[in-house]
Amino acid sequence: MKKAGLLLPVFSLPGKYGIGSLGKEAMDFIDLLADTGNKIWQVLPMGPTGFGDSPYQAFSAFAGNPYFVNLEKLTEEGLLTEEFLADLDFGEDPGRVDYGKQYVSRNLALREAYRNFKKLEGSSVSELLKETPEETLEYCRFMAIKQAEQGEHWNRWPEKLRDHDKAAVEAFTGEHEDEIGFHAFVQMEFRKQWQEVHDYARVRGIEILGDIPIYCAADSSDVWAHRELFQYDKDGDPTGVAGVPPDAFSATGQLWGNPLYDWQQHAVTGFQWWIDRIGYCFDLYDALRVDHFRGFEAYYSIPYGDETAENGKWVKGPGMALFRALYEHFGTKKLPIVAEDLGVITDEVRELMEETGFPGMKVLQFAWDAGAGNTYLPHNFTTTNCICYTGTHDNDTLRHWFETIPDWERNYIYQYTSRSGNDWYAMPELLIKRAMGTIADTVIIPAADYLGLEGEARINQPGTSGANWQWRMQEDAFTEHEKQVMAEIVGVYGRYQKANPKPEPAKEKEAETEAEVEAEAQASPEAEKE
Q1: Which is the catalytic residue, given 394, 403, 429, 482?
Q2: Has 394 been annotated as catalytic?
């Protein structure tokens, strides 16, 4: 059955304390999806972000973002008070995330919650550490060392800690158990809260499509703890870094700077790290979008230290060997993976896509600048095994994009959709309908496109910094009218899927005090006879 869904990052949810989180607003968004016939909620990577705040540059592939821990739930658990939170500054603009204020105030709030957690009867930091999965615990150690080293990149730590010397790491762990425990506590709360959100989505019949970047951040616990799996020298410097070559959009290419995998070493281990990583993600999500899929067939290697991507070269990746290992481990005929196959795709990449069986992506914003042969135009779709988008998190909002493209491109859209040139404000809805009418099995629309928002709602503009990953949806942004329009669009194109009913709220039994019981006994007929 054909499906539809919405793309909205967790940080873009509305709510208190400056950033979207895993509380009531996440449940409300699931209800919105369910009540409008949508089936899928697509999120962005949820790892702990560092400098630049990009979810594609996380401190760990095995940990959750502390910013997403819902503080209201911690208050309900008795770990925080509203009075404590009222004294903290999380930012004043409900439509934007202020990461500087989040960094300070969120840390203060979570550390206060941790102090109160330790006071609870039966709580034990040692037990907490024992219950934390090893790869997540590695992240907790990493963050504790980073704290002790004033935030320095791991390759500037003292030599033995830099090189992940077992004895040195164990000694540090013994001396800093409380700080490591703090990070483990935050991860415990993240997983507990996300599990509640995910369970609620399952109850309502909503699937969550997650997202992972192909590469790890250079300053991450993954690279620090498993340097042998990456292309590094003995001094802690990468020998090659990731990016893409020069093209029509960039004369010098894109220098991402992420360390590259040592695929030969991964093969020696049977791709165990990747099996663990994908398994971690399958625990979080129902399906998974893998970014920059073409890098598995061949990756672009740029000499470390170069200031542009011009001197890079293509090197063969693991190809199908990696995915055979995944299929064998998970024992399924079809892995729930979506391949991000945008950009310049070679025949070899297409062959890998076909062999894996993964659906690819079609983005309508890319469809109008190359004539009738453009592969992203709906009439050129050749398979149902794909997801059609109006745009992704890297695209402008549909309305602002349409208003700013060249006249000739806009005129082609008018002709393609059989609309007059003065039908300006109808175009976002018409292009959403055009996506829905394709043969694609699934159509996913960014929430801002349904809302018809301007450029302020853009999530990310690649190649820029300072204003990305900040947009937040307003409370009650989807009015009853907009919900009805969405449901009708989804239904007209045969994608409406009736959701499971909303569960009835649990009826809490009122506890009777001893005084109430005694009063009732005194008022009984038997008591009157006495």
Answers
A1: 394
A2: yes
Contact criterion met (CB below 8 Å) for 238 and 230: yes
pLDDT-based confidence at residue 1 (cuts at 50, 70, 90): confident
215-262 pLDDT, tens digit per residue, is 999 999 999 999 999 999 988 899 999 999 987 667 898 899 999 999
d(CA 457, CA 453): 6
**CA–CA separation, 493 and 134 (whole Å):** 46
Whole-number Å distance between alpha carbons of 166 and 138: 12
196 given a catalytic annotation:
no
Kindly report the pTM of this predicted structure.
Answer: 0.93
pLDDT of residue 508: 45
DSSP 477-518: -S-HHHHHHHHHHHHHTT---PPPPPPPPP-PPPPPPHHHHH
Rounded to an integer, the average pLDDT of 329-348 is 92
Closest alpha carbon to 388 in 441, 433, 448 = 441
The answer to whether 518 is a known catalytic residue is no
Predicted pLDDT of residue 466: 84
- Which entry of 291, 348, 441, 482 is annotated as an active-site residue? 291
- Least Cα distance to 106 among 163, 75, 68 occurs for 68
Which residues touch 487 (CB under 8 Å, ≥6 apart)? 35, 36, 37, 496
* Of 112, 135, 340, 449, catalytic: 340
362: left (phi over 0), alpha (psi -120 to 50) or beta: beta
